[in-house]
Design a protein that fits this description.
- The protein is an alpha+beta fold and about 325 residues long.
- The protein folds into three domains: about 60 residues, Orthogonal Bundle (Arc Repressor Mutant, subunit A); about 210 residues, Bira Bifunctional Protein, Domain 2 (BirA Bifunctional Protein, domain 2), CATH 3.30.930.10; about 45 residues, SH3 type barrels (Roll), CATH 2.30.30.
- The protein contains nine helices and 14 strands.
- α2 packs across α3 and α6 packs across α8.
- The radius of gyration is 22 Å and the shape is elongated.
């Protein structure tokens, strides 16, 4: 009901709409309308109430609810259902639980805060309240599980394109990080449940430091992590960015479903690579070796040349990559 009231108020933007009119349209009592308006105000909606004139929406909060994101979505199935939470240990954990219970493909779990956010290789992820995008997408692709690593590249390309649509030029640090001015602003974690030749479900978690402040980061990662706000110098509308990500993700994901390839995603990842052409360190089981990043294959593997001239394709699940002189 609150969602319907918000939609009515937005349709009558800059004008008052009477409580009587709202009650007639929605088939509820005026007392119920007042109760829902009160709840919306408590959630951060600035609604002006004037006797005998009704209600007017002055502005909306930057909350990642369905009613705030939906006006910016143009997807067919991704994000058509959004499970919104104030706080959760990990959106990936919740999405996996829901997927196990049969939740449909395209459902998004979004939380304003994660208390135990996780990144790749078991690393912690800082997820302060109301400052970032912490979400997980439930997927049920009918593909061989061996191809699921490609989904991470789809996610990276979607975030990169979404940021560019808002005038923010980012780079992709293979396989799953998005960087801005040399520091990480986004991490992507893909997990799945599968049988030998069948994916039961997959969950792609995307965490973006949007309006995170420097003080929010632990001191030991401030040299490698940043936020869009820190680098751009102003707040970013999270609901617009998240809608851009979902719109781009669906387009690129459908190419994967329909054609079995991720050509468009790989093109984005190549054109915006933070590694290709650069010297890097490949870290595996505590040891590191120097190499030069040459290219990405159509499967999303990183092609590298070692100092001895040997060229290999690196699989993302096996190694960690760093720049010679820093994070990239």
């Amino acid at each position: 009901m609150k969602e319907q009231i918000v939609n009515l108020l937005k349709k009558n933007e800059n004008n008052f709409i009477s409580g009587e009119k709202i009650s007639e349209v929605l088939g509820v009592t005026r007392a119920a309308v007042w109760k829902y308006i009160k709840q919306l105000k408590e959630e951060g909606y600035n609604i002006e109430s004037v006797s005998r004139r009704g209600y007017k929406l002055m502005n909306s909060p930057d909350r990642l609810t369905f009613q705030e994101i939906a006006p910016h979505l143009n997807t067919k199935f991704i994000g058509k259902k959004i499970i919104y939470l104030e706080s959760i240990d990990s959106t990936n954990n919740e999405a996996k639980k829901l997927a196990t219970e049969g939740e449909k493909e395209g459902t998004i779990v979004i939380s304003e805060e994660q208390t135990m956010g996780r990144g790749r290789l078991g690393r912690n992820w800082v997820s302060p309240k109301y400052k970032g995008i912490w979400m997980s997408i439930i997927l049920r692709p009918e593909v061989d599980p061996i191809h699921m690593a490609k989904v991470t590249q789809i996610g990276a390309a979607a975030v990169c394109r979404a940021a560019l649509q808002m005038g923010i030029k980012t780079l992709i640090k293979w396989p799953n990080d998005i960087v801005l001015k040399g520091k990480k602003i986004c991490g992507i974690l893909t997990e799945m449940s599968a049988e030998l030749n069948r994916v039961n479900y997959a969950v792609i978690g995307i965490g973006v430091n949007v309006n995170t402040e420097e003080i929010d980061f632990p001191e030991d990662i401030r040299n490698v992590a940043t936020s869009i706000k820190i680098e751009q110098g102003h707040d970013i509308k999270r609901k617009e960015l998240i809608a851009n990500i979902l719109n781009n993700f669906e387009e690129l994901y459908e190419e994967f479903l329909n054609n079995g390839d991720i050509e468009s995603s790989i093109k984005v990842c190549k054109e915006n690579s933070a590694l290709i052409g650069n010297e890097i360190k490949i870290i595996q089981k505590g040891s590191s070796v120097k190499a030069k990043a040459l290219d990405l294959t159509n499967e999303g593997r990183l092609v590298v040349e070692f100092e001895n001239g040997k060229v290999e394709e690196i699989i993302s699940g096996e190694v960690s990559v760093r720049g010679i002189y820093g994070y990239i």
